[in-house]
Amino acid sequence: TINITLNGKVTAVAPEITILEAARQQGIDLPTLCHHPDQRVKANCRICVVEIEGVKNLVPSCSTRVTAGMNITTNSPRVRETVRTILELIFADHPQECLTCIRNGNCELRQIAAKFGVRDIQGEKRKHSFSQDFSTPSLVRNPDKCIKCGRCAEACHYIQNVGILYSHNRSTEISISPEYGKQLADVACVLCGQCALVCPVGAIHERDDTDRVWEALADPQKHVVVQVAPAVRVSLAEEFGFPSGEIATGKLVSALRSLGFDRVFDTDFSADLTIMEEGHELLDRIANGGILPMITSCSPGWIKYMEHYYPELIPHLSTCKSPQQMFGALAKTYYAQTSGLEAKDIIVVSVMPCTAKKFEAERPEMNASGSQDVDIVLTTRELGRMLQHEGIDFRMLPEAEFDSPLGISTGAAAIFGATGGVMEAALRTVYEVVTGRTLTDLNFTAVRGMVGVKEASVDLAGTEVKAGIAHGLANAKKILEMIKAGQADYTFIEVMCCPGGCIGGGGQPYGTTNEIRARRIEALYQVDENMPLRKSHENPAVQELYHDFLLEPLGELSHKLLHTQYCN
Ligand code: HC0
């Protein structure tokens, strides 16, 4: 360690860390807008400036490393005045719409301004002229609110390797947008929402579909069912001040009942079903010389990425629809029939950690029941807002259980929300189907964890299945390039669009970092451990579905309702 002086106190810190890191380690929360713990240093916003003895100008603490003997002041009048002035300049260039902004309540700019006691906005207010971008079903861009911090572009380029958001012009004319000011629908955006997740203000956010859900719930003619994605149960509680990694399945079910949904079902049910279909598809491809490696197809941002950037590899994708879409198709056929309802009277709402799921639900392929199978998709954040609007005290909610039959699931389904989870769930089932033996150790730990590209190999009665796993599109690209170069000897590959898998999706609570992702993942494995059944093929509701309705995996009805083909 080295010694530095921080606000008059001598402190030992590790060499090579930044002043910002050193200050935060000592409990001094310096303000930042462009800085994000999972991103490279940008030093764009300058509000983290500090004073160093012997250095004439203030320096940004996010990009300046500590050195032995450095004497740093973070709270001098000069620092405070400078930060205030920067904030006032940002405000002068920002629409004064805080009351009606979607980020009202969790805007980072507002929170920092409140801390610094900004009471006045100096200078001439800029007239704004950008139009909003409502071109996609997933995301809304409001360039007037952009503070040019650069976090969105960083997520888009370096984490997702998509790179459709750029910084244009210089100085006061700087803006961040797709090329030539195009709309998101007109560029190769995959709608993952990682930009929205890191935006500190309301410049890019999920399309708000909460009013459509309120309307459905108020319509006495409609039977409104809701499905909840695996990842939501370990993140929603954060919206109500719980620590990350809190498992809130029971409270989540109660909350949805309080909102008035007629049935509270679980995407985990159809995740188990996906394993049945996808597992058999894999075995079929292995036995009959089908295209290998087969790649998972449940993450809609990932599908869109393949369509834009690697169309020639689309035949590698499994033909299985995602669990969200399998659920929608079954809710309006199987569930409708068994409960004496007509499909036209059912509204299917999903709660997902993902912004691309809104797009997926509106794809023309997703009408197997005769109309749109999933009607409305909410993100975790939107559900959080609905519960707040309804005045539901999340802490006081009792634990409740999902409804049957589309609410019955196994632990294998819960881990779908974590990177490696779909692979692990599939291996548990495929192993037992192929070998006829009972798996003694269900935990395929090699496929777990936050490493970007993972590998594992499983012996299935003499046939080796080589598994590859990637999360975050920059990592997925590495595997795709290996396939193109003929260097990938995988049998089965799982790709999840977002870092950490769905628990790190673009619709998850603000403040998501890799550290928080790891805690949510741990919680999902805990959910799995706590379940009485942990293998998808043991799900009794899925067994009944095959017995009474689908008849067999990959059968005629499965093909009609549960599979699709994407175009290349
Ligand atoms: Fe996921 Fe899913 S696991 S994509 O990450 O497969 O969004 O959580 O709902 O559909 O089940 C998201 C999460 C899902 C689906 C499931 C899959």
Mean pLDDT: 95
- Determine Rg (CA atoms, Å): 25 Å
Bound ligand species = 2 iron/2 sulfur/6 carbonyl/1 water inorganic cluster
* Number of helical segments with 4 or more residues: 18
Provide the number of structural domains.
Answer: 3
Please, what is the oligomeric state? single chain
Fraction in helix: 25-40%
Strand tally, please?
Answer: 17
Shape: globular
What CATH architecture label of the largest domain applies? 3-Layer(aba) Sandwich
Q: Characterize the biggest β-sheet.
A: 5 strands, mixed
User: Stretches where pLDDT falls below 50 for ≥5 residues?
Assistant: none
CATH topology of the largest domain: Rossmann fold
What is the CATH class name of the largest domain? Alpha Beta
Strand order of the largest sheet: 2-1-5-3-4
Keywords: 4Fe-4S, Iron, Iron-sulfur, Metal-binding
Domain 4Fe-4S His(Cys)3-ligated-type: 78-117
Domain 2Fe-2S ferredoxin-type: 1-78
Pfam families: Fe_hyd_lg_C, Fe_hyd_SSU, Fer2_4, Fer4_8, NADH-G_4Fe-4S_3
Structure description:
There is one protein chain. By secondary structure, this protein is of the alpha/beta class. The protein has 3 domains: 90 residues, Ubiquitin-like (UB roll) (Roll); 80 residues, Alpha-Beta Plaits (2-Layer Sandwich); 352 residues, Rossmann fold (3-Layer(aba) Sandwich), CATH 3.40.50. Helix content is 34%, strand content 13%. It is built from 18 helices and 17 strands. A 5-stranded mixed β-sheet has the order 2-1-5-3-4, sandwiched between helices. A 4-stranded parallel β-sheet has the order 11-10-13-14, with helices on both faces. The chain has a 4-stranded mixed β-sheet with strand order 12-17-16-15, with helices on both faces. Strand 10, helix 7 and strand 11 form a beta-alpha-beta unit. Helix 8 crosses helix 14. The chain starts with a strand and ends in a 6-residue tail after the last helix. The protein binds 2 iron/2 sulfur/6 carbonyl/1 water inorganic cluster. The site of 2 iron/2 sulfur/6 carbonyl/1 water inorganic cluster (HC0) has 22 residues, from helix 8 and helix 10. 2 iron/2 sulfur/6 carbonyl/1 water inorganic cluster (HC0) binds next to helix 8 and helix 10. This is Ferredoxin. Pfam families: Fe_hyd_lg_C (PF02906), Fe_hyd_SSU (PF02256), Fer2_4 (PF13510), Fer4_8 (PF13183), NADH-G_4Fe-4S_3 (PF10588). It comes from Dehalobacter restrictus (strain DSM 9455 / PER-K23). Keywords: 4Fe-4S, Iron, Iron-sulfur, Metal-binding. InterPro entries: 2Fe-2S_ferredoxin-like_sf, 2Fe-2S_ferredoxin-type, 4Fe4S_Fe-S-bd, 4Fe4S_Fe_S_CS, Cytosolic_Fe-S_CAF, Fe_hydrogenase, Fe_hydrogenase_lsu_C, Fe_hydrogenase_ssu.
